[in-house]
Amino acid sequence: MSIEWKGVMPAVTTKFTANDELDLEMFATNIKAQIDAGVSGIILGGTLGEASTLTNDEKKILMKETVKLVEGKVPVIINIAEQTTKGAIHAAEVAEECGATGLMMLPPMRYKANDYETVTYFKETAKSTDLPIMIYNNPIDYGIMVTMEMLEELTVCDNIQAVKESTRDISNITRIKSKFGDRLRVLTGVDTLGMESVLMGADGWVAGLVCAFPAETCAVFELAKAGRIAEALDIYRWFLPLLELDISPQLVQNIKMAEVATGIGTEFVRAPRLPLIGKERERVAAIIKAGMASRPKLPAYKGIN
């Protein structure tokens, strides 16, 4: 399966049981809800997926299970966040063996690589695999900016096809589209800039709160893409307090609380993460409760683009 790199792609959470084991039953429930809502792909192994806490065996189980669950309806994309080039190449090999359709790649972890080192890391991994790749540009959280000049160097690799744009600079979408046209697809990675990014020409949205609200996220994207701005904006204004739960160090806990409210997740996280407590829990619970109480009726949005 090729990847069009467009539409809503959830960075899904990993579901755990009370015994800190993979909860594949609830995971399947959530994936089904995503597919039913009309997402364009499933992204595994990101921050929301708590990938840094998963064993290699658990990652393989989740990859194979997701490939099985989607039944070829949408691509399955694996996030690569490794400390070494060797590790990234191996991760790409494992992803391919497990049936993944594509990769999302962060720059090297921990070591703050310079531009040359970062470009070489991406290139060497890209050359090692036939899987299509989306570069994840998030200097705020990961300390390395992928510049226009670096992206230009990376276009020599045919399988580097997209950018997840998470700089928080909305103008960067225009810069990428103006410089590269359709050579590089652009997907926003910031929930609180979701609709704005679509209006600036983003091809897709790698979303977080979609884990709890898949239909609402897809509706905002599809309506905005179709030029039905007023309808999209009504939903987006309701959605924004919930979307702001994604821009927090505790985004995993926040989003899992929202998944519980919509019946497609559990709150179990893997230590050192712990469920929210005290005033912060009360604050997040109040936002979710208010959102659920005023959840909008959605217009028909599937197939309008």
Automatic annotation (TrEMBL):
Identify the keywords attached in UniProt to this record, alphabetized. Answer: Lyase
The record's section on InterPro entries has: Aldolase_TIM, DapA-like
Tell me its EC number(s), please: 4.1.3.3, 4.2.1.41, 4.3.3.7
Q: Which GO terms describe its molecular function?
A: 4-hydroxy-tetrahydrodipicolinate synthase activity; 5-dehydro-4-deoxyglucarate dehydratase activity; N-acetylneuraminate lyase activity
| UniProt keyword Lyase present | yes
Q: Give a yes or no for keyword Lyase in this entry.
A: yes
Q: Name one Pfam family in it.
A: DHDPS
SMART domains listed in its UniProt record = DHDPS
Enzyme kind, highest EC tier: lyase
The UniProt entry, under SUPFAM superfamilies, shows: Aldolase (SSF51569)
Family assignment from sequence similarity: Belongs to the DapA family.
- What this protein is called in its record is Dihydrodipicolinate synthase family protein
